[in-house]
């Protein structure tokens, strides 16, 4: 599946053999012309596709948000819980006191679960440390967990995730800490910088200062934008040349227009939308404006405890209105694009040997819709990550 290869939006090819060599794709074509291979996998009756790219997660944390889940079910809003010092801040407390071995063990477990469902590339944000040493540790743990599990990890510094309790009456002092103390220490461990701009979190102005500073150090920009309230963060992201603006439930026409002009990718997070009972983002208007659509799990312990990327893809269709093709591209090529990577998320000669073999629903034909129709029912037969068969 590579939009530039075969038929239709997904670039479908039928009856081909794919040969991998080391961590690369060596050949795609008729079986008769395929170079000999040491090991063969029969994918007859199945679909071979790129490994999934989960381009927005918060996969390194400790502690539990089970009690908060109950409160939200009872109707207490997510932003109110955060303003009271719970939510993200309760995970910060648990994460700060967990220690590196526990954080690594927990992250490895989560990445293994994602990988078993077909994720071969994942973006992981910090943001549960909110002080220099723990922020750096979270990014180190993210990379180490990726190495242990054998999947590609991109890291994002999210020191601007919440204002810590101790800085509630002096938020400017926290912004200064992010700029002057956190950023210089974490930058060597981060590929990107992100900021959560919303009610109860950071203002557009605070976020912009932090993102600009990160960008100045060579980090790609991505933004948690327009999730709970409309702030203008998406237009600001576009102005900064951000790779992506994520969430977008509350984006307006001006934000959409700015994203389209800047080529900023919309990362849709249907897990968070469902758990927070938010209205869907205006997918029709984003599509019409030509804003590329990516889909991710937003895996985190609070707003989106989603460990199955296929569930995110299905929810993107049924609660946000994506087509089957948009959802599949959103979890592959568009997800990679959102990470500034133009080779992952595609099966292409010379590209990474990150591929999946997925079976259609039992008794049904091999068609793309079979991959997303059943909520949590997608049958991933084989995952090959970096050329290695995952068992
Ligand atoms: O993407 N919105 C802010 N950040 C995360 C939530 C993290 C949490 O609730 O712990 C999100 O939804
Ligand atoms: Fe998030």
SSE topology sketch:
Blueprint: E1 17-21, E2 24-29, E3 47-50, E4 52-54, H1 66-73, H2 78-83, H3 88-96, H4 100-116, E5 119-125, H5 132-149, E6 152-160, H6 171-186, E7 192-195, H7 204-216, E8 220-225, H8 233-239, E9 244-247, H9 253-262, E10 265-268, H10 270-275, H11 283-289, E11 293-295, H12 309-318, H13 324-330, H14 333-338, E12 355-359, H15 369-372, E13 379-385, E14 388-390
Parallel strand pairs: 4-5, 5-6, 6-7, 7-8, 8-9, 9-10, 10-11
Antiparallel strand pairs: 1-2, 3-12, 12-13, 13-14
Helix pairs in contact: 4-5, 5-6, 6-7, 8-9, 12-13
The structure holds N-(iminomethyl)-L-glutamic acid (NIG) and fe (iii) ion.
What is the helix tally? 15
Strand order of the largest sheet: 4-5-6-7-8-9-10-11
Shape: globular
- Mind telling me the C-alpha Rg? 20 Å
Bound ligands = N-(iminomethyl)-L-glutamic acid, fe (iii) ion
Largest sheet: 8 strands, parallel
Query: Gap between N and C termini, in Å?
Result: 23 Å
Percent helix, as a range, is 25-40%
Derived from helix and strand composition plus strand pairing, the structural class reads alpha/beta
Strand content: 15-25%
Return the average pLDDT rounded to an integer. 96
Order of helices and strands: EEEEHHHHEHEHEHEHEHEHHEHHHEHEE
Q: How many beta-strand elements?
A: 14
Low-confidence stretches are: none
């Amino acid at each position: 599946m590579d939009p530039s290869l075969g038929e239709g939006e997904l670039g479908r090819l039928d009856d081909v053999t794919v040969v991998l060599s080391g961590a690369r794709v060596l050949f795609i074509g008729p079986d008769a012309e395929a170079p000999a291979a040491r090991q063969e996998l029969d994918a007859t009756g199945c679909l071979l596709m790129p490994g999934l790219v989960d381009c927005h997660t918060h996969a390194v944390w400790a502690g539990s948000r089970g009690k908060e889940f109950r409160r939200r079910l009872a109707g207490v809003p997510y932003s109110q819980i955060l303003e009271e010092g719970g939510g993200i801040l309760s995970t910060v407390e648990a994460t700060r006191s967990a220690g590196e071995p526990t954080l690594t063990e927990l992250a490895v477990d989560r990445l293994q679960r994602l990988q078993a469902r077909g994720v071969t590339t994942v973006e992981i944000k910090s943001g549960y440390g909110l002080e220099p040493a723990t922020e750096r540790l979270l990014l180190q743990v993210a990379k180490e967990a990726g190495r242990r599990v054998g999947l590609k990890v991109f890291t994002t510094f999210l020191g601007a995730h919440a204002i810590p309790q101790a800085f509630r009456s002096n938020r400017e002092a926290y912004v200064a800490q992010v700029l002057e103390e956190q950023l210089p220490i974490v930058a060597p461990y981060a590929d990107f910088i992100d900021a959560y701009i919303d009610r109860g979190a950071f203002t557009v102005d605070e976020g912009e200062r932090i993102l600009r500073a990160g960008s100045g150090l060579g980090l790609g920009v991505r933004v948690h934008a327009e999730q709970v309230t409309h702030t203008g963060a998406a237009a600001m992201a576009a102005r900064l040349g951000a790779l992506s603006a994520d969430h977008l439930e509350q984006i307006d026409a001006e934000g959409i227009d700015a994203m389209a002009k800047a080529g900023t990718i919309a990362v849709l997070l249907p897990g968070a939308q469902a758990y927070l009972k938010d209205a869907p983002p205006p997918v029709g208007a984003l599509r019409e404006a030509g804003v590329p659509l990516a889909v991710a799990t937003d895996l985190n312990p609070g707003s989106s405890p989603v460990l199955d990327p296929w569930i995110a893809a299905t929810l993107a269709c049924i609660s946000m209105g994506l087509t089957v093709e948009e959802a599949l591209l959103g979890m592959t090529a568009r997800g990679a694009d959102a990470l500034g990577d133009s080779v992952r998320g595609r099966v292409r000669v010379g590209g990474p040997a990150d591929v999946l073999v997925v079976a259609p629903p039992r008794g049904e034909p091999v068609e793309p819709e079979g991959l997303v129709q059943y909520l949590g029912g997608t049958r991933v037969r084989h995952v090959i990550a970096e050329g290695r068969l995952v068992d």
